[in-house]
Amino acid sequence: MIVDKISNRHLYFKGPIFDELFRQLATYTLDTPNGVYKNHENFYFKVMSYETKLVSIITESHQKEVDVQILLSGNEGIKIFNGIDVEITQSYDEETDCQFYNPINLPVSEVNLTPGYMAVFFPDDIHNPQYAVNSKIETLKKIVIKIDEKLFS
Fold first, then answer.
1. How many domains does the chain divide into?
2. pLDDT above 90 for 130
3. Which of 4, 56, 86, 99 has the CB geometry, 3.0–4.6 Å to 92, for a possible disulfide?
4. pLDDT at 153 over 90
């Protein structure tokens, strides 16, 4: 897992594919319609809006894709769990590249994501997004960049 300013992306993402990815990212704005934008074979963008929650029921990990989560507006809490602190509720689905969990212990870490920052979740980083920060429920606009994990090998 990485949490850092987007402006520091060059510390983690090197090479022409990532240069292209961040060039494309710069074209997404608050006015971009929600949806999935697949215009490269090694990555794609999911643009979404939703209300944060006091209790989130989505705890997930992936095997084939790395998530780069970026907010265009709003604030979001994301909890991070070790594998021993969750129980599997839905086995890995290769088509959606997701495995879902139920937390049974406290998270190992928490992130408060804000615009200008990115949270990067690698395969097996179990993350639980959609939390309201300071119990303030708000609608956010978010981009999740799904990157083929082979680019990091």
1. 1
2. yes
3. 99
4. no
Range of the domain at 37: 2-152
Helix (H, G, I), strand (E, B) or coil at 10: helix
Q: Does the pLDDT value for residue 124 go beyond 90? A: no
Instruction: Give the gyration radius of the chain's Cα atoms.
Output: 15
pTM for this entry: 0.94
Residues 6+ apart with CB under 8 A from 112: 75, 76, 77, 133
Give the CATH number of the domain where residue 80 resides.
Answer: 2.60.120.370
Q: What is the pLDDT of residue 36?
A: 97
Closest by CA to 50, choosing from 145, 131, 120, 133, is 131
CA distance 130 to 111: 11
pLDDT in tens, 64-113: 999 999 999 999 999 999 999 999 999 999 999 999 999 999 999 999 99
